[in-house]
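User: I'm writing a tutorial on reading structure tokens. Could you give me a worked example: one chain, its sequence, then its tokens, then a sentence or two explaining what the tokens reveal?
Assistant: Sure. Here is the example chain.
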Amino acid sequence: VPVAPPATPPAASTAYVASPSTDGVAYLLKVGDVVQISLRGIPTADAIEDVIDEDGMVSLPFINEIQAAGMTASELERNIRKTYLDQDIYRNIAVNVVVPTRYYFIQGEIRQPGRFQIVTTMRVSQAIAAAGGYTEYASGQVLVKRGGRIVKTIRDSRRLERTPEDDILLEPDDIIEVRRSLW
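And here are its predicted structure tokens:
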């Protein structure tokens, strides 16, 4: 999984709990993601907010660092709980991992431009469909911008099913721009 430079998380008052889904498209945590970890059922219940570091780790009391990148929130919950129990630090503990709400943006010649929440893994074609599809003025050329840089130029987005290498996975704060036709 390629690692993008950490994006500044948007200020959001809402959050979602990422959990595995039956089709295997749950959001995988990555370097730079902010996680909120609640430890309950212990004498001093802690709530920890941490950023996944460049090694893919988060820091927790008594167990130091634990791998987080590449896992779903539910997998991380189980791993943290198992580590605390296996190391006999706590006899009974409940762990909850929450990932603040993350968004992608779509603009240009699209029927419903705007900000959309990322709940599961999302590809460019799915984002275009979620925004109502193309307007009659769309050229088919799509730019995907990440961190202020163009990371993908898709020359004919209407043929994404034939060119799956162009239908890339979106990351939080990506901007999809559907270009206007010149004629």
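What the tokens reveal: The radius of gyration is 19 Å. Residues 19 and 53 are 21 Å apart (CA to CA).
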